[in-house]
Write a structure and sequence with these properties.
Elements: E1 7-12, H1 19-30, E2 35-41, H2 47-51, E3 55-60, H3 62-72, E4 79-83, H4 95-100, H5 102-106, E5 112-124, E6 127-134, E7 137-141, E8 149-155, E9 158-165, E10 167-171, H6 179-182, E11 194-200, E12 210-213, E13 218-224, E14 230-233, E15 237-240, E16 246-259, H7 266-274
Parallel strand pairs: 1-2, 1-3, 3-4
Antiparallel strand pairs: 5-6, 5-16, 7-10, 7-14, 8-9, 8-13, 10-11, 11-12, 13-16, 14-15
Length: about 280
């Protein structure tokens, strides 16, 4: 890919107040180095535009990156994440870093990592009423009136467990460091292809998280749910879940492509962003 042929699409979250100035500075920097084919709101970009670009530069936080990934995965467009949010776990670059490494990205000296995604379908009475891709996770939450719910879980058609809890998380390796981690689930390398199933505050102390093959088909049925029980996608899209509904989750045929920051590896990011494996605070003698 030559520098002259590089086509960039800029995607932004208009709710981020710092987006406007950052985008203007980036356009001034990049305009003689690449062709910028458009600047769009995350939710207002056509498939035709997506197919015509080489990279999508996403300005925002992790939520912006996740929303963009669901949008871009089918077109196989790699994401360059510019962090304007609080954590920036998926948004790999700062504004200064993207300028520093821009030529390396153009000349393909920086790796593009492929990460698995999930596909979720919600069936009611055997009819599909909702579907979506997920980058981080698919999870069921009890909702109001906040009584515990009961779910039945199957894997590849075989009963796995009944789950009486506040809900259930089905996460990708990318999502293992999100809601899953807060709920006590394991950290999985994003380079792996696997799925982790973690109960949210289970009634049984013996219900521990389980990691299964990425090609497994997971079925979750609501045996006893609340009026406000929902199935949620990446914490961004939700649909009401009723008694008897089936949530079918499996590996999606598409992947999330992300441009890596060469100064960080997956473990550096885990330590720097989430404080993983920090040393104890020893008392000075």
């Amino acid at each position: 890919m030559s520098r002259k042929s590089l086509r960039l699409l800029i995607l932004t979250d208009p709710k981020k107040t710092a987006v406007g100035p950052a985008v203007r500075k980036f356009i001034d920097f990049a305009k003689n180095k690449a062709e910028i084919i458009g600047h769009f709101n995350l939710t207002k970009c056509s498939p035709k535009i997506l197919k015509s670009c080489d990279f999508a530069v996403v300005f925002g936080g992790d939520g912006s990156i996740i929303a963009a990934a669901r949008l871009l995965s089918k077109s196989r467009v790699p994401v360059i994440g510019i962090n304007l949010g609080k954590l920036g776990y998926l948004a790999e670059f700062s504004v200064s870093e993207i300028k520093k490494y821009f030529n390396d990205i153009i000349s393909e000296k920086i790796s593009v990592e492929k990460r698995m995604m999930l596909n979720c379908r919600l069936l009611r009475g055997g009819r599909e009423i909702f579907s979506s891709k997920a980058v981080n996770d698919v999870f069921v939450t009890a909702g109001p009136p906040f009584r515990m719910i009961e779910l039945k879980i199957k894997v590849d058609g075989l009963p796995l467990a009944g789950c009486v809890s506040d809900g259930l998380i089905i996460a990708t390796p990318t999502g293992s460091t999100a809601y899953n981690l807060s709920a006590g689930g394991p950290i999985i390398s994003p380079k792996m292809e696997a799925v982790v199933v973690t109960a949210i505050c289970p009634h049984s102390l013996s219900f521990r998280p389980i990691v299964i093959n990425a090609d497994s088909k997971i079925e979750v049925v609501g045996l006893k749910v609340n009026d406000g029980t929902t199935v949620s996608i990446d914490g961004q899209i939700s649909h009401n879940l009723k008694t008897g509904d089936q949530v079918l989750v499996g590996k999606d045929q598409d992947s999330f492509l992300v441009v890596n920051n060469p100064i960080r590896n997956e473990w550096d990011t885990l330590a720097a962003k989430l404080g993983w494996a920090e040393k104890p605070k020893y008392k000075n003698s």
